[in-house]
Automatic annotation (TrEMBL):
Residues 16-96 form the Carboxymuconolactone decarboxylase-like domain. SUPFAM superfamilies: AhpD-like. Keywords: Oxidoreductase, Peroxidase. This is AhpD family alkylhydroperoxidase. One of its GO terms (molecular function) is peroxiredoxin activity. NCBIfam families: ahpD_dom.
Length: 157
């Protein structure tokens, strides 16, 4: 399968994506734990069906030391016992923040309170920005049918 657009060949994409990637770098450097960032990025990408992002975040997480058991259970995190309460709260916020069109009330107060119980304001800010960032990246890749499978860990870091 070939991508509909080559973002790397487009001057417009180059200008815009430079800023988007800069935002992504700032999130990576935040105090939100790296493992949590990868789990959230993976879960958002699974929900949206973004194969290239699932490929990327699975491989980056594994390269960072994440176990295959945890990576394989992200899609079923509610029933899995391998995630901390903080990670579960982040995954719940990621799901509700991604599925805003499916939930009339958006992110509920209880979901927010569970996340706020585990993360300080700076980490919550990074978490919300990461969820939004991943939804943007997913849409960019899905609309243009970016192919998955050949990502090399760390390519964009």
């Amino acid at each position: 399968m070939d991508a509909r657009l080559d973002y790397f060949a487009s001057p417009t994409a180059g200008k815009a994506l430079k800023h988007l990637m800069s935002a992504g770098k700032a999130l990576k450097e935040s105090s939100l734990p790296a493992a949590t960032q990868e789990l959230v990025a993976l879960r958002v990408s699974q929900i949206n069906g973004c194969a290239v992002c699932v490929d990327m975040h699975t491989k980056d997480a594994a390269a960072g030391g994440e176990t295959s058991v945890r990576l394989n259970l992200v899609a079923a995190w509610r029933e899995a016992t391998v995630f901390t309460e903080a990670e579960r709260a982040a995954l719940e916020l990621a799901e509700d923040g991604t599925r805003v069109a499916d939930a009339a009330g958006g992110v509920g107060d209880e979901v927010w309170a569970r996340a706020a119980a585990h993360y300080d304001d700076e980490q919550l800010t990074a978490l919300v920005l990461l969820i939004s960032f991943m939804n943007t990246a997913n849409r960019l890749n899905i609309i243009t049918r970016q192919p998955a499978g050949d990502y090399e860990p760390g390519r964009f870091h």
